Amino acid sequence: MTPTGLESLIEALRCLPGIGPKSAQRMAYHLMQRDRKGAKRLGEAVLHALDAVKHCLRCNTFSETEICERCASPKRDQSVLCVVETPVDMNMMEQTLAYQGLYYVLMGRISPLDGVGPRELGLEQLMARVMDGLVQEVILATNYTNEGEATAHYITAMLKPKGIGVTRIARGVPVGGELEYVDSGTLAQALRERKACAA
Amino acid sequence: MTPTGLESLIEALRCLPGIGPKSAQRMAYHLMQRDRKGAKRLGEAVLHALDAVKHCLRCNTFSETEICERCASPKRDQSVLCVVETPVDMNMMEQTLAYQGLYYVLMGRISPLDGVGPRELGLEQLMARVMDGLVQEVILATNYTNEGEATAHYITAMLKPKGIGVTRIARGVPVGGELEYVDSGTLAQALRERKACAA
User: Fold this and answer.
1) How high is the mean pLDDT of chain B?
2) Which residues are CB-contacts of B65 (< 8 A; sequence separation ≥ 6)?
3) Sequence-separated (6 or more) residues with CB below 8 Å from residue B114
4) Which are the contacts of A81, defined by CB distance < 8 A and separation ≥ 6?
5) B16 in reach of chain A (CB within 8 A)
6) Is A72 within 8 Å of chain B by CB?
7) In chain B, is it the N or the C terminus that has fewer CB atoms within a 10 Å radius of its CB?
8) What pTM was estimated for this model as a whole?
9) Any B CB within 8 A of A33 CB
């Protein structure tokens, strides 16, 4: 006997990642009972975002303009392109303040189990972006997960024959990390990729 | 450099209970990237519910009509009124199939820490409902938490002088429960409230 409008709201909330029927019900009740103002803002924000938010034609991240601010900035180094999986990863890279080049956001990763292959990921668009004549190095900053690694391998195989320099962010012991708490795979890799110490 | 529409959506999603900045961001990206149809449905459902969902004038639960279906039903026993904290609790009671009376939904509980006293809870409305001349027994089915107990005590003190029968749902070992796994407070209470066995 839940009113149909409430029923539809509960159902609709389930499209959010990680939200099951119980949470959706709790959220719907909360919105209707405790936060109608927030609910109004939420409803309007979703519909507005759907209308306004598109993808940057150059880097594929979310943008409200055809070319996002970062891609349009004359201050960024046009010769380096950093490939990341998500906009969040791009933000993480930016927070390092150690990178001045441009980005390409895959908006996903190759993941055969989820039916995402090179085509679904739109790697042709990345290819076209890289071949603009300015890019000299592509830095692969996909995650060090199986899918991220597979994606990096695929992109490497795709770009190498075109004469583009392809690099991968380093893997190793985290800064501030103690060996005791680093997993053995990371440690083994850090050992294999050891570097000569400066004198 | 997150687009403003997306920023507003992330901010708006934070009004959902239990959703922090990271989850809100993940949800917003999910809606924009993977489920625009779901996002549209969500936005519309929220706005529609805001418009359509009100409170039943008699039992205070969510309803799209002035009087909800249950209160309007001639099949329900008008002489018993079960007081619960939330619509979910009402649904739980209904699922027992053991109750044929009507309900009153507090939409909360007395909780001084959250600034919810008898007035904020609208107990005058409950009082007015109980004094309709038909109700003979009020069953208090608020939770057996501190707040639920306080609420039950307050309502009892409020209704008793009016000559209304007030009862409280029983407390004890859950059906199917094993003593080994029941907390000692519950067990002590079950002992204190022991009943004579039928011959």
Assistant:
1) 90
2) B56, B72
3) none
4) A101, A102, A103, A104, A129, A130, A135, A137, A138, A139
5) yes
6) no
7) C
8) 0.76
9) yes
Minimum-distance CB partner of A29 among B6, B38, B87: B87
CA distance B86 to A177: 48
Please spell the DSSP secondary structure of chain A, one letter per residue: ---HHHHHHHHHHTTSTT--HHHHHHHHHHHHHT-HHHHHHHHHHHHHHHHH-EE-TTT-SEESSSS-HHHH-TTSEEEEEEEESSHHHHHHHHHTT---EEEEE-SS--BGGGTB-TTTTTHHHHHHHHTTS---EEEE---SSHHHHHHHHHHHHHHGGGT-EEEE---SSPTT--GGGS-HHHHHHHHHT--PPP-
ipTM reported for the complex surpasses 0.85 = no
Structure confidence by residue, pLDDT tens digits, A135-162: 999 999 999 889 999 999 999 999 999 8
Q: Which of A4, A8, A45 sits opposite B8 (nearest CB)?
A: A45
Under a CB-based contact definition with an 8 Å cutoff, are residues A137 and A164 in contact?
yes
